[in-house]
Design a protein that fits this description.
alpha+beta; about 675 residues; four-stranded antiparallel sheet; 11 strands
Length: about 675
Amino acid sequence: MTRVRFGLGALVGLLGAGFVLAQQPAAPAPASLPIPPEQVLSHASRTVEWYRRVVALQQVPVDPDDVVTRERLYQTALTTVKLAFEFGRAAAVLAATDASQSARPGAAAPPGAAAPPASPDSDQVSDASGTPLNESASMDRAATRLSARANALQAQLSDLDQRIAHAQRTERESLTAQRGEVAAALELTHEIQNTVSQIQRFEESSDAYGGTGSSGLAAQIADLERSVPEARRNAGGYASGGTAGAGSVGQPGGTAAASGSSNSSAAANTPAAPGARPAASTNFRPESSGVISLTGQWFSLESTRRQVAGASKQTDALLKELDSVRSAVTQDARNIARKGLSSTPTDPQQSAQTRQQLQEAATRFRQLSTLLIPLGEQAISLDSARGLLSDWRNSLESQSAAVARYLLLRVGVLLGSIVIVLVISDIWRRATFRYLHDSRRRQQFLALRRVIVSVALALVIIFGLVSEVGSVATYAGLITAGLAVALQNVILAVVGYFFLIGRYGVRVGDRITLAGVTGRVVDIGLVRIYLMELTGPEMRSSGRMVVLSNAVLFQPTAMFKQMPGGDFFWHSVVMTFAPATDIQEAQTRLAEAADSVYENYRPAIEQQHAALQRFIDFETAMPGPEVLLRLTDKGLECTVRYPVEPARAPSIDQKMLVALRAAQAKAPELQLVGGPQLQWD
């Protein structure tokens, strides 16, 4: 950059030494920046920090009612940061003007003292009038003067061509020589202009990549502006109604250029930042949401409210800091206006001096207006942003309060429903123990109570916690299908349990045959059944416990169960007589003998039959001895079938055989073909 500055100084020096530059206006009165450059940079930095805080609010979930507020807030923040950059650039131009005025030859030295010569390698380059040029401003001024010089030489060259065309021979030689000098000067000016243009393009490309290497106020403001790319996309139209152009600051006799755009038009034409796009809109309805959704929404609203409150506090702090900056600039402008309006000269000799002072005051006020206008508009934008943040915060507070009310209502309804289910469960349990005295039926009702209460509690909790029941039902359906495939045996066992405990089902103590195993039921679980194995004709315990899954009930093999209320077996005695035996006589003798033995234990069998009759819904015949006769190849086969108690079966069988042999031996004796055979049904 030092070489660039030195080369530019040499080019401008050549122009000042070899050619007559365009006439420069008189320099204005020395001006000073009302506030320190550090305060300008601090104000711009705090505005950028506030802008980023506001942009961060765009990332929170959007409620449909807040979309317009967020968009207006973002556009207002973007306008505010643009105005801050405009103020910073204007202040940088004033600071550069102050530096150039203070560096004029003799400005800082006593009257009559000679200014030290500028070094060719110094950071500042002076123009033909001795005013030092500041970096890019020096190149811009040099390019402007070179363009004016080229236009003037071109016009002079055209005028000489016309004069040569109409001049006489004696004057033509002089005009031709003069034209050659002007053409050479124009060619040299074009060469210098091309060189300056290349330097400017290089500097612009360096600035675009952040390589200016400058540490002045203008460079620092430019660095801040590069950190907010969306503020530079519409650089030609800032949201200000009458902001002065930065290029007119410090130029004598210049006027402030209005930007010609309004807040609304700038907001409408300004593109949104890529990272500032609002999150997806969510249409949340608290009246139809569950506890989980309401809790998440409440925490989200509270988090957003805290962020908005923090942004509102930061806005107040920025407004306070802006007031301090405006007060310093406003005080200086007020002093100039008061001094200019109060000056009323009456002496004609002082009119020229007064006019000079008023012109200097107008120039100075015009310079200060480039600071006052963006500061005033920024104050209006910040006040609007504060109002938007306040309205948003109030909206969030009302939404949070509504969500909290619905959340408390949902929790109350959920807890109340759980209490109601538990109360009904306790009433059911008390009624079961009070009104059901049969232990088997009581156990069935208690098991049914546990199942129903568990399902009811699960449904109450699910419907209370979740909001989208349809999606939950779909998800539960998929899960249930997978569990049904994986736990099909367990599910069959649970279903089999309810079949086992039915009205004609199995109870503890019953003798059953299940899956080829005969035994007495010890316990019936929800998944398994426990049997004490019985073996032998007397059905005595083998000492082994058999554990079977309830799912075996659905297998093709049948289950055999002792009749309800009855605990007796049927035994048979088969006797074969000669074919010539009197059938009526044989049947009468055998029936009388069986009845005589049965009379000894008839009451016990009839009592069991009565219990069985109370359990079933249809009439059954009274159990007793039966004599069945049929003719075979061997003779007359007589089968005596009779009930026996398990505990007295051996003695009853012995008495029955003795009684039947006695009836067969009575005269006339019934001739036996084969001995009596004992059988069990």
